[in-house]
């Protein structure tokens, strides 16, 4: 019977599920006889622990690695880099004109922040960008299963994922203007929690993979691949952060700004994110069994990047770029 925190079903049913790399090493070093089928040979084993379907390591049985997702990751990296550049170049004109011409406007419209959340949103995009090459390495079937390199890269990947979802939620909190964005009072707690989620998740992930201590590993019983802390940080936390983010942005857009159009961006981003997860957890195995060379992870990657792009347009729609032109200048 599956218990809370068990990864056994996920590692068996979901192709290219990255956190299974941590458990593969755990099983390999504590009871390698539990590894059967395509997982038995670590030099060719795909991502997963005794998976129903997986992409063999590159060079084995004609495998080209997870080629579809490699291409999708390459596209996502380029596109996310463009979003970072666009975010950096974009600035609410209130930075330049607030002292003289826009003071009254800023008084009348208190949510017109000094920087439009540009710094914090850019941090979110940078963190997301960094998860992509790590995903490529941890799920691309390049590195040998159970190897030190793959285990360490997967742990860093998990750390960046947890930190990225905090950055997402942090942007929503800052959008409520509890503190002014782009200032020390905003950036210090924002950065602190980024580092806290990053460090805590990496430590737990490394302990699961390398079993330095008995606190987070090995699983007991080993076959369950259980780690409650890892499950919370890689599954529960991202889902909770995404839901809370949507609720907070709904409050900001509909409650504070009294706007409707930007809300459709957030709804669309939420739909794309949900579709990416449905594809990854449900459709990926179907595609893998049908092709035996690719799985559905490339679709999930593209949908996630599309969701991030929509979030950029949502953020742009509520930061009033038109201030850089002559909208209202009190005389």
A few lines on this structure:
With 331 residues, this protein is mainly alpha-helical. It is 63% helix and 0% strand.
Distance between the termini: 72 Å
For the sheet with most strands, the description reads: none
Strand content: under 5%
Count every beta strand, where a strand is a DSSP E run of 2 or more residues.
0
CATH architecture: Up-down Bundle
Uncertain stretches: 92-114, 321-331
Question: Helical percent range?
Answer: 55-70%
- Counted by DSSP, the helix tally is 11
Order of secondary-structure elements: HHHHHHHHHHH
Shape: globular
State the secondary-structure class. Answer: mainly alpha
Overall tally of domains: 1
GO cellular component, one term: endoplasmic reticulum membrane
Pfam family, one: Chs7
GO molecular function, one term: unfolded protein binding
Transmembrane segments: 67-86, 123-143, 149-174, 186-206, 226-252, 264-284, 296-315
3D structure, described in words:
Helix 7 (148-175) runs parallel beside helix 9. The chain has a single domain (8-324), classed as Up-down Bundle (Rhopdopsin 7-helix transmembrane proteins). The relative contact order is 0.16. It is built from 11 helices and no strands. It is mainly alpha-helical. It is globular.
């Amino acid at each position: 019977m599956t218990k809370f925190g068990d990864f056994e079903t996920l590692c068996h049913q979901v192709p290219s599920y990255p956190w299974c790399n941590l458990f593969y090493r755990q099983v390999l070093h504590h009871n390698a006889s539990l590894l059967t089928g395509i997982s038995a040979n670590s030099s060719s084993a795909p991502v997963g622990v005794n998976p129903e379907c997986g992409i063999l390591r590159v060079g084995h049985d004609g495998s080209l690695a997870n080629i579809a997702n490699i291409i999708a990751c390459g596209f996502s990296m380029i596109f996310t880099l463009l979003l970072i550049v666009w975010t950096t170049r974009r600035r609410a004109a209130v930075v330049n004109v607030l002292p003289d011409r826009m003071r009254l406007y800023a008084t009348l419209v208190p949510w017109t922040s000094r920087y439009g959340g540009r710094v914090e949103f850019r941090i979110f995009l940078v963190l997301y960008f960094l998860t992509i090459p790590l995903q490529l390495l941890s799920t691309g079937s390049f590195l040998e299963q159970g190897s030190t390199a793959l285990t360490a890269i997967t742990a860093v990947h998990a750390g960046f994922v947890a930190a990225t979802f905090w950055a997402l939620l942090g942007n929503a909190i800052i959008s409520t203007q509890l503190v002014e964005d782009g200032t020390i009072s905003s950036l210090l707690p924002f950065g602190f929690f980024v580092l806290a989620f990053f460090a805590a998740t990496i430590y737990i992930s490394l302990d699961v993979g390398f079993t330095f201590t008995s606190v987070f590993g090995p699983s007991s019983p080993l076959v369950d691949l259980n780690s409650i802390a890892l499950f919370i940080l890689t599954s529960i936390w991202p889902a909770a952060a995404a839901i809370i983010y949507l609720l907070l942005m709904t409050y900001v857009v509909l409650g504070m700004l009294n706007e409707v159009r930007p809300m459709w961006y957030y709804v669309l981003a939420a739909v794309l994110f949900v579709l990416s997860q449905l594809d990854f957890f449900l459709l990926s195995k179907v595609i893998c069994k049908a092709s035996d060379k690719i799985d559905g992870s490339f679709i999930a990657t593209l949908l996630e990047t599309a969701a991030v792009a929509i979030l950029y347009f949502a953020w742009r729609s509520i930061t009033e770029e038109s201030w850089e032109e002559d909208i209202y200048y009190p005389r």
